[in-house]
Amino acid sequence: MSAPRRLRRDPRGEKAATAVTGGRRPRFDLGAEARGAAATGPSGRPRRDPRGEADRQRIPGGARLRMDRAHRGGASGPGQVVAEASAPAQRLRTIAAPAFLVGAVIETSAGRPTPHARQVLGAARLLADGHPELGEGAVVAFTVADAGDLGPVGADRVLPLGDLITGDYDPEGLAAVLATAAETLGLRHLVFAETADGGDLARRVAARLGEGLFAGAESLTATTVTRAARARRTERRAAPPRLLTLAADAVAPHAGPLHEARSLAAADAGLGHAPEVTRGIRAARRIAADPAAVSLAEAEFVVSAGNGISDFAAFRDLVAALGATPGASRVVCDAGLMPRSAQVGASGTVLDAACYFALGIAGAPQHLQGVAGCEHVVAVNTDLHAAMIERAGLAIVADAQAVMPALLAALAAEQAAAGRDREAAE
């Protein structure tokens, strides 16, 4: 059998096809893809056009040449929103008939689980998956307020308890409900956050069940839980008990497959009605703090001004409209435009906020250290390559001075629309 015949190249024909007419010397267009000619080399592989690629990445405007190396929007221009690419779809893990259950008590903020609550779910997931000899374990998330979708953070079942307690603050009633659920569901473990509310609730549940509590766990595996003891001179180590509270940052949040987060009816947990309980607190309600008076260390939402802000009256109006706590970079505080207590960064206040909104801040290393613990970062800056833009989960490449009035106008329009809807409903 004869070997297949190879096509013979025609170098002269290839050169003539890319020749550019005119001029004193021969010139050749080596990237002829835009004119419909075959953009392939002799081997049939696509031919790159480096100059065309650079032109498509070039960002117009500015005093110097800037390129969008991240390829997040082609030739991005000023004012374009630059967001991270969407994550690939996660694999769904369904546990239809779990061999045992692990409970996690979830604290929420603004309709989402807090970062500490995500770690509690990560600990519950670790305890549920760490005993393959027992079979597949499932995680039951107990919520009082709306926590959103808990499937991505590791919950297999979600049991809302808000209708079984009195008001939005009822520690005695909530402890009675959790103790009943732990017994009827046969929970192998029940994990709380070691916070002011979570720690108090865990101790109430332990007292009602008559069981010991391992408080403030600083490390956790499927077989061992540890914490410091005797003024941190020794370490207490034990097998994970039924009830335990988790210190902050002791366990990483769940980062595995998506879980089902199926809603569980209260009747399925033996909670057809609220358990009888003698309440020591007659009435209680939560009073929202004034965001402007909250310290940066305790703020949930911080809006900061940087060197790119000159209209501080509009900045304060925007902070008030967003219901946020004002902050600033060191440059602004050194200039006396904002008080020193508003300085964000390693030499100011290190934040633990859920959201940080940076206006006109380039992002010095000390400032980035101050926002390292923030869950979400939004940045507005004219420089696409600013460090704060790179740190942000959502970035707007534009002048912050132009963005502020646009945001104020959008917020005013939204409030007006909400007012019209309320009037129509009435």
| CATH homologous superfamily title of the largest domain | HUPs
Strand order within the widest beta sheet:
11-15-10-5-8-9-17
CATH architecture of the largest domain: 3-Layer(aba) Sandwich
The CATH topology annotation of the largest domain reads as: Rossmann fold
Query: What is the total number of structural domains?
Result: 2
Distance between the termini: 89 Å
Give your account of this protein's structure.
By secondary structure, this protein is an alpha/beta fold. The protein folds into two domains: 92-269, Rossmann fold (3-Layer(aba) Sandwich), CATH 3.40.50.620; 291-416, Rossmann fold, CATH 3.40.50. It is built from ten helices and 22 strands. The protein has helices at 11-17, 50-57, 115-129, 171-185, 196-209, 312-322, 330-334, 365-370, 387-391, 400-425, and strands spanning 19-20, 27-28, 81-83, 92-93, 100-105, 108-109, 112-113, 137-143, 157-160, 189-193, 214-217, 219-220, 225-229, 234-238, 243-246, 258-259, 262-263, 301-305, 325-328, 355-359, 376-381, 394-397. Strands 11-15-10-5-8-9-17 form a seven-stranded parallel sheet, sandwiched between helices. A hairpin with a 6-residue loop joins strand 1 and strand 2 (27-28). Helix 6 (312-322) runs parallel beside helix 10. It is extended, with a radius of gyration of 29 Å. The chain starts with 10 loop residues before the first helix and ends with a helix.
